[in-house]
Amino acid sequence: MNADTRQRLGNLGGLAVVLIIWTIYAVYFSPTQGWTFFLQLSVNGIILGSVYALIALGYSMVYGILKLLNFAHGDVYMIGAFIGFGVLTLLGGPLNPAIPVALLVLCMFVVAMLGSGFLGLAIERFAYRPLRDAPRIAPLISALGVAFFLENSALLLFGAQFRDYDGFDLISYNGIHLGGDNGVFIQYLGVIVIVGAVFLMFALLALVHWTRLGKAMRAVSFDREAAAMMGIEPDRVIAATFFIGSALAGAAGVMFGLLFSQIYHLMGFLAGLKGFTAAVVGGIGSIPGAMLGGLLVGLVESWARGYLNGNVSDLVVFGILIGVMLVRPSGLLGTPALQKV
Amino acid sequence: MRKYLVAAVFAVAVAALASVAFGSTKSPARTTSAGSALVSCGTTRTIGVAAPITGPAASIGQQQLRWAKFYVQRWNAQKANAKKKIKIVQGDTQLGVDTAFAVKVAKSFSSNSKLLGVVGPAGSQEVVASTSSYKGGGLPFVSGSATRTTLTDGHTDGNRRGFFFRVVPNDSVQAPTVANYIAGKLKAKRVYVIDDQETYSQGLANGVETRLKAKGVNVSRDSISQTASDFSSVIAKIPGTTQIIYIPWQLAPQAQAFGQQLKAAGKGKIKLFGSDGLFSPDWKIAGSYDSFFPVASGDPIVKAYEKAHHGNGEFFGAPSYVAAQVIVNAVTTACKDGKASRTEVRKLVAKTKIKTSILGLPVGFSAGGDLKGGGFGIYQIQSNGSFKRIG
Predict the structure, then answer these.
(1) CA distances from B273 to B124, B213, B291, B381 (A)
(2) Which of B55, B230, B240 sits opposite A260 (nearest CB)?
(3) Gap from A336 CA to chain B (nearest CA, Å)
(4) Is B257 within 8 Å of chain A by CB?
């Protein structure tokens, strides 16, 4: 077991201790005591965290390969949500779907993922590739520019009105009751989101670990020049990374629309920030870290809203970001940056 | 060479966009520090309409703009006004995004020397943020929806007396109306109050909470952000025995999502009660209650508007018709000698006396700028999404 692995295991152990202490406090000593409330908030947090995790994966993948914070990623997620809404509208809308609902939802995901993926490709090709050898601040500014460009383009194309997915009418208001009618309630929609997110995350892990493309991605991430000397085309690998990361953001956009109904052109900003926070907390560049970070951010947000006042949920989430940065600058599952000499 | 060509094309595109953007504002002219500079009225008099034309509150802002335009269109069509016309300059305040947009609009209006008065802005926080710009330009501004009580008390949120007026009753009227209805008519004993962290919402939530508690109602209080979409944790906190959830919010789509998530959490039987900010077709949770300004729905002008808009009364915007009426009346009187100043218009706005209006009551202002008289009605959302007055 090397030092990095030991440190990650130590981080996970520390996290487990914190979570156990928190659970005991929340269930037995907080003003709103009880397992049911705690578990309900935890389920809500995992559902929300699944969406954040998918966004975080895009940040993490791009950072892992290019060391670039792609601030336009949140807006790719927004575009994905609009593409999904477009498919929903074209196929009859939530109240009168023209095809079976399961097929409709599948179409929404597939088209949104493809659309967002190609958008990611275009962003990489026109906004980042020309700046590949520029100082690191240049692509960062370009990323901010792309973010504003996408937000305002969405405003022009789709208008400023909120669009209503009406996911509950489309799929179902029903769900699973655990522990009777007064127990924990999980909506079917929530189950779909969790299962979908877990499937996509494991598909990504499989791709990264067991395919030639994944091996090439890891190689480029480790050393782009050396990878090029070994016959890998870094530009193609980077483009593929953008496509995959953006496609995941598109899927997250559709999940968000189905779960929370209302989408609008500025929705990517805060979600992007939360996804970024998740990626950093988990250890930016690490795929399992992004998943863990997403779930943690979702859980913390849900617990903060439930046990404290809604005023302070974002304060707690971003406070934790600062705390993790102070204690573990490379995140929970990240690798400390090595200075190459 | 190719790089230079791309750069040149980009530069030309940016220049073209900039020229379009700046061209639309025309020459901004100078700012009049006290608004005393005389403007030649000519045949076209200009007023501003500041409303959330885009953004999350666009549905209500568009209504306000359409109603203000409706007044101006009718005024311009009158034979007596054949040789003079009113022109509207519109400003998008994007309520719910950032008050900086409202300030930009206020600055732009203030620097437009032809502009003599303003209809708007819509939100109380926008009024607070943009007051110094309007005062700096000497402009009167008449809101058709900003209801926060302290806007007109002269000290809590700053002093804007003589500049700011509103043609809707304030929350000191709305809060007791709502509390009386919840405790008296609905006989609710367990109420959950959630504000949206904006000045308007918090003020109203505080007012209703205090009054309900005084009436012996068990009130719990929470808060959500205007950017929130996931309400599941807040909903988990709400006891199933709650009878009414009071949500004095400004963004109707947010209230709609809240209602859907409440139903999905198995708490759909709890009734929602909104405020004037939610009086919008975007909020359509059947059975919900809403407090709203007085509008004389049988008035021929309201009927004419409905006819011109496919039967949709868009009542939220109706007070902006009256706000436009107040400003245009003042501008017209000030322009009788061919020249007018903003100071003159402000003084005339303060002296407004309109005997009958589409609000169903006379329009005049108190020293603070509040509408004299008027109350709030209670409406209920029907299964087809329409609002029916019930109290």
Answers:
(1) 20, 17, 8, 10
(2) B230
(3) 34
(4) yes
